[in-house]
Amino acid sequence: PQGSEEAKAFVNAFLKRSMPKMKDEAIQDVLTRKAVVLEHYSKKKTKQKRKKTKGFTAKQRREMHLFEIEPEQQRYTIFLPLHELWKQYIRDLCHGLKPDTQPHMVQGKLLKADLHGAIVTVTKSKCPSYVGITGIILQEFKHVFKIITKEDKLKVVPKLNNVFSLEIDGFISYIYGSKFQLRASERSAKKFKLKGTIDL
């Protein structure tokens, strides 16, 4: 066993190493009170920043032609199954389109629904050449619809100054394009006013 002097020397040396900021007098003062609180210096953990995966810019997407439909794919019959899926999606969204379903409820659901696959017709327009265009919506952008017609022609129809009609299971709904200039993802969160001035 160690002698008392050796033990005292060991304790003093240990405390100096453990508490390098304290002076010798302070250490001795602590020892006389028979209570020692050792300082603990924890190493700060450096948080690794997660790198965000950057997607393509709009310019890069245009250059890569990501949103362009190839001419050989521009056929009406190819997208008929998409229309059938869309009808089932709307039926599920409206909890079944029954004869006693309130029209304003269906209208409210359609305003926020995804329209890719819906068959629409341009009923009114300030440009007469657009009136009568009927087809399946293939792509919806903020300002235009891309529609494939039964004649296998891809039409780009602006929303502005056009009124579109949409029919499903006997329910006919009208979309005023001028009030509808939003991306599909933005429409789901927007609150549409039920009343207001309606014009082209």
Q: Return the string of H and E elements.
A: HHHHHEEEEEEH
Distance between the termini: 101 Å
Shape-level CATH architecture of the domain at 70-189: Roll
Helix content: 25-40%
The average pLDDT score comes to: 81
Strand content: 15-25%
Note the total helix count. 6
Class inferred from helices and paired strands: alpha+beta
CATH topology of the domain at 70-189: SH3 type barrels
Instruction: Give, in spatial order, the strands making up the sheet with the most strands.
Output: 4-3-2-1-5-6
What can you tell me about this protein's structure?
The chain is an alpha+beta fold and 200 residues long. The chain has a domain at 70-189: Ribonuclease P/MRP, subunit p29 (SH3 type barrels). 30% of the residues lie in helices and 19% in strands. The chain has 6 helices and 6 strands. It has helices at 4-18, 24-32, 58-64, 80-93, 103-112, 184-187, and strands at residues 119-125, 134-140, 144-149, 154-158, 162-168, 171-176. The radius of gyration is 36 Å and the shape is elongated. The termini are far apart.
